[in-house]
Amino acid sequence: MLIRFNKPYSTGNEHQYMTLAMQNHKLSGDGDFTKKCCRWLEQHLQCRKALLTHSCTAALEMAAMLADIRPGDEVIMPSYTFVSTANAFVMRGGIPVFVDIRPDTLNIDEAKMEAAITDRTKAIVVVHYAGVACDMDPIMALAAKYSLIVIEDAAQGIMSGYKGRPLGSVGHLAALSFHDTKNITSGEGGALLINDSHFIDRAEIIWEKGTNRSRFFRGQVDKYTWVDIGSSFLPSELNAAYLWAQLECASKITQARLNVWHEYHERLQSLERAGHIRRPVIPDGCAHNAHMYYLLVQNLDVRTRLIDHLQSKEIYAVFHYVPLHNSPAGLQYGKQQGELKQTEHLADCLVRLPLWVELTNAEIQYITDEVRAFFDH
Ligand SMILES: *Cc1c(COP(=O)(O)O)cnc(C)c1O
């Protein structure tokens, strides 16, 4: 039984919607499907404005422009994240200041953030790892105290919540990903979500390559022209049409993934009790989206052997982020706040198990039986 790590789910409507987009004879961005997707995100994620982008990386780059990051400005973020979280700010001359993570959720440790604030600090970027929310209340309070902008890297967080609020609706700005490896996908894709409405006008300009084209189409100015920095951030209508099919089924997809997640969680409980592994922790008040199922084992050696064992049984489990703070570019462009002990340790111990919509209970049983067999020997 060969079990791949990821298998993007298709709802069956993608083809039809892409054909419709082609029949509309408008494949560039900001057509009907883009507008439908933006409206859906605004309604379901309760943000003031959503702008589709061609990736989460692009949405983070837009956020860095909107936060007006200038050379030497410091941006607080975790080291245990994807490179784009940092790169988007480094491209504006910003300095990532890496803060350690919490051992329970692997999210940035809010208790260690205040010590990282200096008079150069401009923004905080939080990453909702595995679609499980960061503790946003103390983070927003800290940001208010020091007048900092909070950007949620919610790449993994669509359809998750924090104390009843959708992820992506809590910070001033947020970025979503629709990459093939995420819960809702368009191959490559993303969105910028804006909650602080004073960013909306400038966000539209940056999105439209630095022009006031959006205002022109609304009849608010009589010609459109170059007014600010910007770039090409729109996805084509083909991608938006594909995404629309996925967004329509977002609840169904999330529920199916949660079923897989809970099946793993139950089957692995005894291994946790026996002290071999630690299972994911979901704090009170967090509603997650089953983006990931991971285990934490004792150390790097056990992890390497577990992944090898599973691979010998044709089960493709993987490790995840290599921390950024001690990577070549992290050392060159970033700074670290104190020691990042949890980051360094947990990054070595984490194993992600296959998780996709059509994974069957029989396959999950096979996987968890092989995890158990590994620890039994
Ligand atoms: C996937 C991911 C990204 C990048 O998303 P793209 O859409 O591929 O640009 C950024 N941050 C995090 C935390 C991610 O998981």
TrEMBL record:
Active site: K182 (proton acceptor)
Domain of life: Bacteria
Keyword Transferase belongs to the record: no
Modified residues (N6-(pyridoxal phosphate)lysine): K182
Residues making up the signal peptide according to the UniProt record: none
InterPro entries assigned to the protein according to its UniProt record, in alphabetical order: DegT/StrS_aminotransferase, PyrdxlP-dep_Trfase, PyrdxlP-dep_Trfase_major, PyrdxlP-dep_Trfase_small, WecE-like
GO molecular function per UniProt: dTDP-4-amino-4,6-dideoxygalactose transaminase activity; pyridoxal phosphate binding
An individual GO BP term: polysaccharide biosynthetic process
Sorted UniProt keywords: Pyridoxal phosphate
NCBIfam families per the UniProt record, alphabetical: ECA_wecE, PRK11706.1
Similarity remark: Belongs to the DegT/DnrJ/EryC1 family.
Protein's recorded name: TDP-4-oxo-6-deoxy-D-glucose transaminase
